UniProtKB/TrEMBL annotation:
Originating species: Stappia taiwanensis
Protein known as: MBL fold metallo-hydrolase
Pfam families in alphabetical order: Lactamase_B (PF00753), TAT_signal (PF10518)
Keywords for the protein's UniProt record, in alphabetical order: Hydrolase, Metal-binding, Zinc
Family: Belongs to the metallo-beta-lactamase superfamily.
SMART domains associated with the record: Lactamase_B (SM00849)
Length: 322
């Protein structure tokens, strides 16, 4: 029996611990949660059309966090009652990792790169999903980064041979996001619990530094594909608005992360949001826009494949999967 590259990497990561263990502490996750196998493995790819744009959602696997990370500012009993009433697990939060690929004319645009091999046992499947879908990673022309958390940028480099996974692509991300994570004084100016995230961001972004264009709000990548500022989850978080044939699609990144709480309780503060009040304000603005303008969404962490719409419900909103 031959050992696959992936098994080899996993073995190495397990044996040495290293970044994984540091991160488990940072994220408040025990080793048991990290090693729990992801339930129901998603199909590798889900495709649909938006006008002339071909949209493919690729899975990078999934990750599991305690449900307590969903709402740091809400009493446990209230959170548990809400999740139970919605038929959701009140103890464990399983998140998908849905990565959007846009084919539009000559451009093949990837939004985020997944978690790579060193973050979560059940994540880091993006390269396999490209293979399963028969899409060549070398054909990617642009990689847009919503933000620099591990599950979005640790897939920039292949840890097996340190090569770039998307070697022909240019990278585009928010200038504010780059400045936060790449600050030479990062370790002395930020809380210790995000240091492992920062070191991973610096390692991955640093490897492609000369290919990264840092942009402000409303940056047009190609006509009809625009990066919009959606700060709060991280300081320079951006989402991607795609417009084609009279339809609009918003690739949310982590501005909306949970299928009930993010939509129906937008003021509840996930512990993964770095600037909680700004994140809540951004969520409300996006939800209002999505419901009013009839936007289609792809949510990075929403249940696979994370494609849906927003409806107004009572005085808040509701996620409707497509
Ligand atoms: Zn994320």
């Amino acid at each position: 029996m031959t050992i696959s590259r992936r098994q080899f990497l996993k073995g190495g990561a397990m044996a040495t611990g290293g970044a994984r263990m540091a991160l488990s502490g940072a994220a408040g996750v025990g080793a048991g949660a990290m090693l729990r196998p992801h339930a129901a493995r998603a199909e590798a790819a889900h495709g649909f059309a938006l006008g002339e744009t071909k949209v493919t959602v690729l899975t990078d696997g999934g990750l599991t966090l305690p449900a307590s990370t969903l709402a740091a500012n809400v009493p446990e009993a209230e959170r548990t009652a809400f999740l139970t009433a919605h038929g959701q697990d009140p103890v464990t939060r399983a998140s998908a990792l849905n990565i959007t690929l846009l084919q539009r004319g000559d451009a093949l645009i990837l939004v985020d790169t997944g978690a790579g091999m060193n973050f979560f046992e059940d994540a880091g499947l993006l390269a396999d999903s490209f293979d399963s879908a028969g899409i060549d990673r070398e054909a990617v022309t642009h990689v847009l980064l919503t933000h620099a958390h591990p599950d979005h940028v640790w897939g920039i480099i292949d840890d097996f041979d340190e090569s770039e996974r998307f070697s022909n692509a240019e990278y585009i991300m928010g200038a504010a996001e780059w400045d936060f994570w790449m600050n030479p004084d990062f370790l002395t100016s930020t809380p210790e619990e995000i240091h492992a995230f920062g070191l991973g961001a610096q390692r991955n972004l640093g490897a492609v530094a000369e290919k990264v264009t840092r942009v402000g709000a409303d940056h047009a990548v190609v006509p009809g594909v625009t990066m919009i500022a959606t700060p709060g989850h991280t300081p320079g978080h951006m989402s991607v608005l795609v417009e084609d044939g009279g339809a609009q699609l918003l690739v949310t990144g982590d501005a909306l992360t949970h299928p009930t709480i993010s939509f129906e309780r937008p003021d509840w503060q996930p512990s993964t949001d770095q600037i909680p009040e700004q994140a809540a304000k951004t969520r409300r603005a996006l939800l209002d826009r999505a419901a009013t303008d009839g936007l289609m969404l792809v949510g990075y962490h929403l249940p696979w494949p994370g494609v849906g719409r927003v409806e107004v419900k009572d005085r808040t909103w509701r996620y409707v999967a497509a």
